[in-house]
Amino acid sequence: MMAKNKEPRPPSYAVSVVGLSGTEKDKGNCGVGKSCLCNRFVRSKADEYYPEHTSVLSTIDFGGRVVNNDHFLYWGDVTQSGEDGIECRIHVIEQTEFIDDQTFLPHRSTNLQPYIKRAAASKLQSAEKLMYICTDQLGLEQDFEQKQMPEGKLNIDGFLLCIDVSQGCNRKFDDQLKFVNNLYIQLSKSKKPIIIAATKCDECVDHYLREVQAFASNKKNLVVVETSARFNVNVETCFTALVQMMDKTRGKPKIIPYLDAYKTQRQLVVTATDKFEKLVQTVRDYHATWKTVSNKLKNHHDYEEYINLEGTKKAKNTFSKHIEQLKQEHIRKRKEEYINALPRALNTLLSNLDEIELLSWSEALKVMEKRPDFQSYFVVLEKIPWDETDHIDKVNDRRIPFDLLSTLEAEKVYQNHVQHLISEKRRVEMKEKFKKTLEKIQFISPGQPWEEVICFVVEDEAFKYITDADSKEVYGRHQREIVEKAKEEFQEMLFEHSELFYDLDLNATPSTDKMSEIHAVLSEEPRYKALQKLAPDRESLLLKHIGFVYHPTKETCLSGQNCMDIKVEELLANSLLQLDHGRSNLYHDSANIDKINLFILGKDGLAQELANEIRTQSTDDEYALDGKIYELDLRPVDAKSPYLLTQLWTSAFKPHGCFCVFNSIESLTFIGECIAKIRAEASQIRRDKYMANLSFTLILANQRDSVSKNLPILRHQGQQLANKLQCPFVDVPAGTYPRKFNEAQIKQALRGVLEAVKHNFDVVSPVPTIKDLSEADLRIVMCAMCGDPFSVDLILSPFLDSHSCSAAQAGQNNSLMLDKIIGEKRRRIQITILSYHSSIGVRKDELVHGYILVYSAKRKASMGMLRAFLSEVQDTIPVQLVAVTDSQADFFENEAIKELMTEGEHIATEITAKFTALYSLSQYHRQTEVFTLFFSDVLEKKNMIESSYMSDSTRESTHTSEDVFPRSPRGGSLDYNYPDSEDDAEGPPPYSPIGDDVRLLPAPSDRSKYRLDLEGNEYPVHSTPINCHDHERNHKVPPPIKPKPLVPRTNVKKLDPNLLKTIEAGIGKNPRKQPSRVTAAPPEDTDPSDNYAEPIDTIYKHKGFADDIYAVPEDSQNRIIKVQNSIVINTQGEEENGFSDRVSKSHGERRPSKYKYKSKTLFSKAKSYYRRTHSDASDDEAFTTSKTKWKGRHRGSEEDPLLSPVETWKGGIDNPAITSDQELDDKKMKKKPHKVKEDKKPKKKTKTFNPPIRRNWESNYFGMPLQDLVTPEKPIPLFVEKCVQFIEDTGLCTEGLYRVSGNKTDQDNIQKQFDQDHNISLESMGVTVNAVAGALKAFFADLPDPLVPYSLHQELLETSKIMDKTERLHELKEIVKKFHPVNYDVFRYIITHLNRVSQQYKTNFMTADNLSICFWPTLMRPDFENREFLSTTKIHQSVIETFIQQCQFFFYNGEIVEAPNPVACQPPPSNPVQMVEPMVPLQLPPPLQPQLIQSQLPADPLGII
Questions:
Q1: What separation in angstroms does the CA of 740 have from each of 119, 667, 725?
Q2: Residue 730, strand partner residues
Q3: Among 357, 455, 690, 1486, which is most buried by a count of CB atoms within 10 Å?
Q4: What is residue 1421's three-state secondary structure?
Q5: How far is CA 1478 from each of CA 906, 1037, 1240, rounded to the nearest angstrom?
Q6: Is pLDDT above 80 for 1383?
Q7: CB of 1064 within 8 A of CB of 1052?
């Protein structure tokens, strides 16, 4: 039963593979392929197939278990399934003959039969015989699979006869066939099936195969199967066919010819190969290894199939080729990346075409290696070539291997780079040329489309060269530029017309009528029309501007981050923080100071004497003061020491103060120079804030051996310098002392130092219990326009550079506090810096004591905004106008700047405001004294301003959300009774308003014309109505009119000749006794359009009263003067400084007005807009409600003489028509109304005007006719020749030559000495250039007749009206020829000299224009009392200017030249009365460098009267 249940075993067959075998002699060099055929059938996988099987064995291998001393091999068994699914097992036996490797004879075995008989045996037996795998198995059986032949015996069921049909090796095919035939005979005897296997058909010889087939065909049932073990073709077929012959039940297999079977096999291999390669393609990393990949793919069907067919070796080779391809692809890509990156590197390192255009690639490489950025683009590898290094794997390193540059590809890139630079250069040139072409086409307007322009440029060379894209890009850029420029100009135009917008009702939207008015006014502007094609953008800009006017904030400011409010807050936040921090460190623990470091400055040993005196009063360098002991460290330094600054400041010695001791004018002057150097050093290099805050104390030494009269002079000059320096002055105490210094002096000086240090500490850390220092005496608003071309630091530097500057209250980010001595007390001034748009709310709602209005002289919009703002300011509030430009030279070289600066001063003159200028290229603007007079003026009017503010019942109750000032105004001023310690670290004002000719003590007749300002300086006081008083103070005046010099006394010991003469004059007369001056009312027919700055103002002093409700005229005779129906009594005893009190008394009579009604310029500007839209309104009608403008003298700012008009001819010897006789002035004034009426009548004849004699001595040379002073041999007067020669040799580049008056005493001395000796040398006299220049002008002023004859004046004026320049010059040349020969020679000589002076205008600042202003009254001697002359003064000046400019043309037959600074010489209108009041150009003189600090004495310093 159990046998039946067992599954039947598959049938088993044993096949014996036989063929030619034996020695090499028998079979040749190689076998017939029996082993390969067996190997392929039993182990068909490619990896298990071994193409080499040897039959030459050693005795050991032959006796091993595999061979087992037999001449046959057991290959194992193969289980095969037939088509019907029936399996069978086939055991394969190979009959061979093994050769001994020693004897090369067959091994001896148990079966000694020959091969033919042995191969035909049907029964085989060999105990424990192992299966054969390969030759390497022999001897190493344990390393291979060990499988025994079943039961050690096998019965052969069939034979597979192998016949090699290849060429063979040393074997004849016939011999093989003969052997096979014999073998076949033996095999057939066994009656077993036989199949012939034609082996090695892959190397088949066709006739061999045919012979085999013929052999088989002669045999019965003998089948030939064409096989190839190498390619596994028909191997299995031959065994399957043999099995079918052994088992007839199996289907007969189809025998396929070799070629067909080979194709089928190869197709199978190709398919498997394709699948395997695709599988390998999935590997993208060339770093992958075969081991890793094969482990991942070993279970994949395609992988296994290919391995079976082709083997692992081929698979690995395929994989290796793929990896190599990946690597090469990676290298190719990297190389491509490098080559692509090379142009960028070349563009950076070799971007200069001029440098590389002619260089070869190798030369360019050397140049490139030297570039500093070379390592950023290239890497030099240690090993080359680069593609065999690990650099190819550094994907993050984009640097190019330098050895790659040696390739042809890199060189080609370089050549292309050079060509690209050449073409790009040409392209850029053409684009720029095309851009310039577009700029030349005037009709291209903003917003114009390209299509409308292209037709005008089609023939342009540049347009043809560049591409369409480039041309559109250039045009687009051009359009953007002109659109942006047009928008900026449009916005600038809106600011220039600020008056048009700032009268809008800010609580409502603009009405349709108002918008129509705005458009009507703006439509006349070219800048408005420029945006015609961009009307929506234009309307948007206009509405945006109006929106900003309604809601002006720093966030909506049209200047963006250039908003003045933002920049001010940033600057103050940084500056004040650093300032306070520096001070807190500087004065830390200064209240408990117990050691005082003193620097003592003196001259000629005075410093050492004072130090010795202090040490004498000390005990071991310890000084007792006010109950406390102080240790003193004294450092005396002589003023002449070259190491002054280095000795003053060292790391070990930081002085708390500086004692400056003097005993003469010379030593005081030296001290002033030294202090100026110290402060300049501290200001310019800003080495340490300590130096900037150093306290100075002036100490006067006792005079033991000098006359008593010297002491008052020294005392006053010392006090004057102390006032300017804002520092204490220690005087010589009363009484007689034998020593130079007194103990009281030293103690007073030490107390001053301690107070100064304590004050500096208190500024940093104020004590709240004493007084709330946050309150301010004055509140000043400084306004500036957003976007002006100057830095905020420039306008704030006068405050921030002062040590008295500190931060304002918390929350006021745009304010600062100044602590200044004004008058005799210390005041706190709050300066709030705002933009104009932020100041509007302040102007309406806040209490402001004064405005500092800043504008840029380079920008019309800045002036427009100033006008709009100023128009609405109440005229009770003082105003300081500040013009800002780069340098003084701008005034002479730029007409636009000159016009704006002139307009600013013109407005200041009209409203009696102050005017000054700041220069960004100058260091002198950093001094606070530039605003000192303005602060004094504001303080003087403080009560009136606050009363006006409080009494204004119409003030709105609502305020801006951001209060700039505290709400409650203070009724009184807060005074700080600090001692007169130094307040500001700066020196005196950079340009002294006092000329060289102003003496320390004025003559008695002149003292009435002087008064002291708040710092002790004298300035002229003119007899003008009191409503003009501020105007006189606020602007620089010409030098005062001087009387005839007095004869000096001979019994006075001279300290300074000029000084003592004036002192003697002051002692001898009473300065308070002065003739009365009554200013007449203006004539009814006075033309209001007359030029207010004409020279007639110097002597013709009738002026109309301004309709100023706060100003009351006064005279010196206690008379009652009626002004606007108000009666004011002027008392003789009332002091002049009581002006503000008198003004306050008259305050309640009328409410204040606005500045636009006080200034015709402001009013006419505002009304000009009205007239454009309301043509029926005349200017006269519009002006009826305004104040009558005072027609006063045009003067510059007192505090900034740079801006004074160059009209030096008005005073002194410069104007021969001026007299110092007081009675004569009174007579002229009485005659003025009559003269004005006579002026209406036309004059037929020019009146000869004889000047008064200015000399007080008899002369036989000066004042004589010109003809008497010359000879034919010497046509030029000797005095004129000497003066001109001296000036040209020594002072041609002197600043202000002929404008700055020299010392009058020196001028007189020059003429007196020349009267005595004509051969005198001016060089030996030691006089200044200005004195010689003044003496020269005085010579021409003293001539009986002017150098330019009166008879030719009318012709000169008529010729000047000729419009054509060339014709005008030729006519003038003909007129000059009409001069008397003597006059002609001298005129030519002096004009040639002036021309040489004007050529140095960049150094001496004296242009032809300035020189003509100084000289024309002297050369032409006009009649200033002639009213008809007033309309021609400018023409007179322009005539002389033309002669100076065109000197070569007039006198030396030269060509007409273009003047470097031309001034238009336009003829006047035929009817001067119809002229609009002209704006006199502002004449800007050069700076007077503060080399010496001049001081002045008050009217009566000696207290005698």
A1: 155, 15, 24
A2: 699
A3: 1486
A4: coil
A5: 10, 20, 21
A6: yes
A7: yes
Q: Are strands 778-784 and 729-730 parallel, antiparallel or unpaired?
A: unpaired
Q: Please answer whether residues 1039 and 1301 qualify as being in contact, where contact means their C-beta atoms are separated by less than 8 angstroms.
A: yes
d(C-alpha 818, C-alpha 804), whole Å: 6
**pLDDT tens-place string over residues 762-796:** 544 443 332 343 478 899 999 999 999 888 888 88
User: 3-class SS at 542?
Assistant: helix
Q: Report the distance separating Cα 826 and Cα 818, nearest Å.
A: 10
- 547 contacts: CB under 8 Å, gap ≥ 6: 556
The reported pTM is 0.44
Q: State the Cα–Cα distance between residues 930 and 1284, nearest whole angstrom.
A: 37
Is residue 529 within 8 Å of residue 489, measured between CB atoms?
A: no
- In this structure, the dihedral spanned by the alpha carbons of residues 90, 91, 97 and 103, taken in order and rounded to 10 degrees, is 140
In which residue are the tokens 């150098």 written? 1347
> Hey, what amino acid is at 462?
A
Q: How far apart are alpha carbons 129 and 125 in whole angstroms?
A: 9
> What's the rounded Cα separation, in Å, for the pair 498 and 845?
21
Query: Alpha-carbon dihedral of residues 671, 672, 678, 684, nearest 10 degrees?
Result: -160
Distances in Å between the Cα of 1014 and the Cα atoms of 994, 1018, 1031 are: 15, 9, 17
Three-class DSSP category at 629: strand
Tell which residue, 819, 879, 889, has the closest CA to residue 849.
879
Give me the pLDDT at residue 1147, please.
40
- CA-CA distance, 1280 to 1062, in Å (whole number)? 29
Q: What are phi and psi for residue 600, nearest 5 degrees?
A: -110, 120
CB 1169 within 8 A of CB 514: no
Q: How far apart are CA 990 and CA 995, in angstroms?
A: 13
Q: How confident is the model at residue 417 (pLDDT cuts 50, 70, 90)?
A: very high
Q: What is the dihedral of CA 21, 27, 29, 31, to 10 degrees?
A: -40
C-alpha 1122/C-alpha 1145 separation (Å) is 15
Q: What angle do CA 92, 94, 95 make, to 5 degrees?
A: 140
- Burial (Cβ within 10 Å: 0-12, 13-18, ≥19) of residue 69: middle
324's tokens: 């190599």
- The SS3 of residue 281 is helix
DSSP β-bridge partners for residue 729: 698
Residue with tokens 């040590």: 803
All residues at 6 or more sequence positions from 173 whose CB lies less than 8 Å from its CB, including other chains = 165, 205, 208, 211
Strand, coil or helix: 1159: coil
Using pLDDT thresholds of 50, 70 and 90, give the confidence band for residue 644: low
Interacting residues of 226 by C-beta distance below 8 A, sequence separation 6+: 165, 198, 201, 204, 209, 233, 234, 257, 258, 261
Q: Provide the pairing of β-strand 850-856 with 825-835.
A: unpaired
Of residues 1450 and 10, which shows the higher confidence score?
Answer: 1450
Give the number of C-alpha atoms closer than 13 A to the C-alpha of residue 119, restricted to the C-beta side. 29
Q: Helix H segments across 562-709? A: 564-586, 606-616, 644-648, 665-685, 689-692
Residues belonging to the chain? 1505
pLDDT at 1291 over 70: yes
Cα end-to-end distance, the chain, whole Å:
171
Dist CA 1208 CA 1301 (whole Å): 8
- Exposed/middle/buried for residue 1060 (C-beta within 10 Å: 0-12, 13-18, 19+): buried
User: Using an 8 Å Cβ cutoff, are 1295 and 1486 in contact?
Assistant: yes
Please report, for residues 73, 1054, 1060, 1069, the alpha-carbon distance to residue 1051 in angstroms, rounded to integers and kept in the order given. Answer: 162, 9, 11, 17
Distances (CA, A) of 483 to 490, 786, 1473: 10, 22, 45
Q: Which residues contact 1272 (CB under 8 A, 6 or more apart)?
A: none
Q: Are strands 825-835 and 815-822 parallel, antiparallel or unpaired?
A: antiparallel
Name the packing angle between helices 535-550 and 468-496 (round to 10°): 40
CA angle (815, 817, 823) in 5-degree steps: 140
